[in-house]
TrEMBL record:
Membrane among keywords: yes
Source organism: Streptomyces liangshanensis
NCBIfam families found in the cross-reference section: HDIG (TIGR00277)
Disordered as annotated region, ranges: 431-500
PANTHER family (alphabetical): CYCLIC DI-GMP PHOSPHODIESTERASE TM_0186-RELATED, LIPOPROTEIN
Protein name as annotated: HD-GYP domain-containing protein
């Protein structure tokens, strides 16, 4: 369970207070309670199947994002009722809907406040553009709608509804994830405009049928297409869940084969996301870049296990086999369409800015942007992770090494973005399963590091002698085809235990 941060809780409380203030006029005389009760019950019934296990999940672990599928009921309420009464329609369905993540109470309150404010704004907008007259001919009485003039207030209501939802969503994202407002709001309104436009049209149809001689019962027929669209939407999310499961399976296979880098792929994905967010990438590209970071070493599945787990320096032939893993990975994922730009990052994440990398020796802007991001994230995690053959460097030391190699091995813009992200979010270093069983001093002293870490060529660093066995060599250089730091030959030792 990820608790909602304090700033997001304060934001939710403020939204709830604003919603309560907007609802107060509904409890005065003149509220059409029968219509409010019918629409509220209808929305609650529609929300129960809509808030299924697939659709009810938040796309951001700590942020409760609205994911309702039956906004037409709320938009119809905005056209049929006064603003306070229309806002009240959203409350029962929002409070009763399924919530998978905890704390459930705070998430239900947020959803109720968010939808109430959006519906209230929609009702205000349609009044401003003459909605009561256009829909009913003279107020809230039963009269013939005035087409096409009625489309103007309906469109204004939909735009207001969409804008308020996007604004509130971006605000809670900024509060919970500590994102700049511009980054949190980027693309929210534009992406939601088309689906909310369809919901607005359905809401207008409901409102017209509600006011027709056939009465409220006829408005129920508008919901049938929405149930169908809900099913299609659920199928899309099931497909997305299948994609995620495929990626997890590939990563687990890599971790099993190369246990010395267990968990490395997930952390590279996380660091890549931090860099992308600092660069202001759209959320869709950020998600694809996360896939790139997670799958960057999937080509290790095509490398013989004896080479990956070999102790000591590699032969030239073995090094050439190791350097094929980006191409192996690209071949494995080339048919997975949803990965998009991630495929190029998997192929080119070992290219260097000065052209001395592999597999194709690309230089500068020839290297895809995603590959330049993953290269920095890969090297950073390799330096800050404790392995059986090497102790983790402090974050500051790793950052200094990245900055030293910026412009030759790494893109300076990507390094700067990572530095800013670390200052904003921090970084929790990780240990592997091997470290849990004992300190690195008992590991592979003098052994070459596993391939694929993307480490910069280290500069000699003077350190005070430490008690105990000699420190392990700097990882990564030997298996990447880079000039390795000279080191004494590995001492003879007893056979490995528990490494098979």
């Amino acid at each position: 369970m990820r608790a909602i941060p304090g700033a997001a809780r304060a934001y939710i409380l403020g939204a709830a207070l604003c919603a309560a203030f907007c609802l107060l006029p509904a409890f005065r005389a003149g509220t059409p309670w029968r219509a409010v009760a019918l629409l509220a019950a209808l929305y609650a019934l529609c929300e129960m199947p809509a808030r299924c296990r697939v659709l009810g999940r938040s796309l951001h672990g700590s942020v409760p994002i609205a994911a309702g599928s039956f906004f037409p009921v709320l938009l119809a309420s905005a056209l049929l009722l006064p603003p306070a009464a229309a806002a009240l329609v959203a409350v029962p369905g929002a409070l009763l809907g399924r919530v998978e993540q905890r704390p459930r109470g705070a998430r239900r309150i947020w959803r109720a406040a968010q939808l109430s404010l959006a519906t209230w704004a929609a009702a205000r907008a349609q009044i401003l553009f003459g909605g009561p007259v256009a829909l009913g001919g003279g107020g809230y009485g039963l009269k013939t709608p005035d087409f096409p003039y009625v489309l103007l207030p309906a469109g204004a209501a939909t735009l207001a509804f969409c804008l308020v939802l996007a604004t509130l969503d971006g605000g809670v994202l900024a509060a919970a994830e500590r994102l700049p407002l511009r980054t949190a709001w980027r693309g929210l309104f534009v992406r939601s405009l088309a689906p909310h436009g369809a919901h607005g049209l359905a809401g207008l149809m409901m409102a017209v049928l509600w006011r027709s001689p056939y009465g409220p019962l006829s408005a129920l027929f508008v919901l049938l297409p929405m149930y169908i669209s809900c099913w299609v939407f659920a199928q899309y999310h099931r497909e997305s869940a299948a994609h995620q499961a495929t990626i997890r399976a590939l990563v687990q296979a890599v971790d099993i084969k190369d246990k010395y880098t267990r968990g490395h792929s997930e952390r590279v994905g996380r660091a890549s996301v931090l860099i992308a967010q600092e660069l202001g990438m759209d959320r869709d590209r950020v998600e694809v870049l996360r896939f790139a970071g997670i799958l960057h070493d999937v080509g290790k599945l095509g490398v013989p296990t004896r080479v990956l787990r070999k102790d000591g320096p590699l032969t030239p032939d073995e090094r050439r086999v190791i350097e094929l893993h980006p191409e192996y990975g690209h071949e494995m994922v080339r048919g997975i369409g949803f990965l998009g730009e991630a495929r190029e990052a998997i192929l080119h994440h070992h290219e260097r800015l000065d052209g001395s990398g592999y597999p194709y020796g690309l230089a500068g802007a020839q290297i895809p942007e995603f590959a330049r991001v993953v290269a920095v994230a890969d090297a950073f995690d390799a330096m800050t992770s404790t392995r059986s053959y090497s102790r983790a460097r402090p974050v500051g030391t790793a950052v200094a090494e990245l900055e030293r190699c910026a412009g030759s091995q790494f893109d300076p813009d990507m390094v700067d973005a990572l530095v800013r992200a670390l200052a904003r979010h921090g970084w929790q270093t990780a240990v592997t399963a091997d470290e849990k069983n004992g300190p690195p001093s008992g590991g592979r002293t003098g052994a070459a590091a596993p391939v694929g870490e993307g480490l910069p060529v280290p500069a000699p660093v003077r350190q005070a002698p430490a008690p105990g066995p000699a420190p392990a060599p700097e990882p990564g250089a030997a298996r990447r085809g880079l000039p390795a730091v000279p080191r004494p030959p590995a001492p003879r030792r007893a056979p490995r235990r528990g490494r098979a």
